[in-house]
Write a structure and sequence with these properties.
Length: 491
Amino acid sequence: MSSNDENSGGASSQKKNVIEDNEKGVSPTEIVYPKAVSVEENGLEFGAAEDAVEISSSKILSSNLSHRQHHFEIQQVDGSNQEDLPNKQSKHACREYRLEIEYVFYLSAYAVLGAVLRVYVARFFGQDCDDPSVNDFLTPLSRQICVTASGKTLQHGGALFLDLPANMIGSFVMGLITPMDPETGLRFPWFKMDHPLQDDDVLHAAYSVGFCGSLTTFASWNTQMVIMFVGTDTELGPQVVPAIFGYILGMMAAIGSFRFGRHVSSWLQSWRHPKKRDSSDEDENDNELEYGRHETISTTQENFDTQCCTTFPDVGLFKCLLAVFKPKRSALVLSVGLVVGFAIADFVLGINFYKNMFLTSLFAPLGALLRWKLSKWNTRNGSSGTYSWVPLGTFAANIAGAFFSILPVALTSRYSTQIADKLWLMAIAAAVKVGFAGSLSTVSSMVKEIVLLTEKYPGHAKPHMYGFVTCFVALTMSLVIYTPIVRTRSG
């Protein structure tokens, strides 16, 4: 048999295969021929010198299938896709609904944990030394430390404001979950590379937005500096220089803590996953990392998809929620336990501090969720303006937080004699300041953005302008609100 006969026989055989594949529902345009195959059609040869050849369906089907049969088969394929379309849309809507539920619940839970920890860290490092009204299990130890100061009493050192330690801790944790190299770094360096939680976006948002964002606060920090600026409610009078240094020290300490956290994250990753010296092992590690970050499916998503998105009516709402929350149930249980515990302590012990903490725990998720929504302004796709690099979402959250923090402080200061016996009203005002405004504003996200802007624009003043403008606008706005209210108070 001649080579031409072999080629024509091979072409006829492959045409037959393509026709059979088309009858089975496989598109002929997806058939790829290897390099060694030569196909002859109408005197033309394809594929002899190419790595892969894609045979056009029209050239092959024209000699074997009628246009009517081909059109009928296309209609059948399109009809099946249209029948599957409602199911696909339903599953997609279910996954979107599941994702929204996860974000809301876990951001709220971690916001409660962050806000509660912020209050106790402030008490531990100095607040109990200025406020003798609280007397519980922490008081004997916390009154021996007195590192920070509120700026209201005769104790000097208000530049080391009450929330400075919490801002440093939260910024450090934020750096810990922000890898030096986004491509090869791990978001949770204490886990293995192929751990399912490495690819869990909800958990990472819960840590960064919920926990770190609520543990750190720009609003309370700014409010204390404003009170020291004005001096009406302080025993030392106006403290302008300490307040200015409070802004500088607060910013430097938070940025340094974030950078230190990133270096610790890099060290943890190297210690937890030591790199191989030879290139083959390094490539293998890179493949494992890529698998861990992009191919694994979180247990939460898998449980929800199998139990809810497919058989939601049969499973029921309660079991569906259990499937969603089982992998990270501990944070939810702990946050709910804290809220219930504060309520019980308030009614049983009668300590106003626990009343404030109960309401603070309820208000904190609201501020964190609003900040999460505002964070979408940080990525303005397609924007190319002069100030498109500014993280507007974080900036708006910090300015709004400063407003909702200074306003209740000013009002309670002005009407202190009228509302002194209204404990619930005072507790609500404190919860708005500490819980809502404290969780709406953030230091950890701000310093993260400053550091990333420094890396993106090396040697440029943009990141420092962002930090300075945030502090200046918040200070100016707060002074405009606070000063006239407290200086015209009655009694």
